[in-house]
Structures are given as structure tokens and as C-alpha cells.
Design a protein that fits this description.
By secondary structure, the protein is an alpha/beta fold. It contains three helices and four strands; from the N terminus they run E-H-E-H-E-E-H. The protein has a four-stranded parallel beta sheet. Helix 1 links the parallel strand 1 and strand 2. The termini are close together.
Length: 90
């Protein structure tokens, strides 16, 4: 399974989201390839991903992709990420 963690500008915030998504996946006992990306890179990466994690502001910019786009309100909240990933990786 491929997951893309997306932020708007660079890679800093998306790396935090990536690390917290990996924590959530470990807690769920699931394995996935989680990639950090800016919005420009994410449009292409999302075409081969199953899940895209991003903010409400960026979700519409991902475009029409086959991946499930999941809005994360607080990139630092591992519990929120876990809750939102659970139905998608079970």
C-alpha cells in the first residue's frame, strides 16, 4: 500500500505527517510505504497511491486521482490519523 502525505510548500510539514502516519500504521499493525510530498509532486504521486493525507485547504488541489483523499485537521494528532486510516487499511 502506498500513502502520500502532502503539504503546501516544502517538505517539512509533510515529513511530520508522514512520521505520524507511520506511527498510526504501526499501532494498527499495518505496513505501508508512506511518502512525503509538496502539492506539485503530490499530484503525480497520488496517481499511484491508494491514500493521500492532506489538509482541507489542499484536498481540492490534489485533483481527480484514484487515491482516497483523507483530510487531516491536525498533522500532529496521531489519534486523529489513526482513526481516519483505520477503515481504509483494515
Amino acid at each position: 500500500m502506498k500513502i502520500v502525505a502532502v503539504c503546501g510548500m516544502g517538505i517539512g510539514t509533510s515529513v511530520l505527517l508522514k512520521m505520524n502516519a507511520e506511527k498510526a500504521l504501526r499501532a494498527l499493525g499495518k505496513d505501508a510505504d508512506v511518502e512525503a510530498a509538496d502539492i506539485g509532486t503530490a499530484r503525480g504521486a497520488a496517481r499511484s497511491a491508494e491514500i493521500v493525507l492532506t489538509s482541507a485547504e489542499l484536498a481540492p488541489e490534489i485533483g481527480d486521482v484514484p487515491a482516497e483523499v483523507v483530510v487531516i485537521d491536525n498533522f500532529m494528532d496521531v489519534n486523529e490519523i489513526t482513526q481516519k486510516l483505520t477503515p481504509l487499511v483494515s
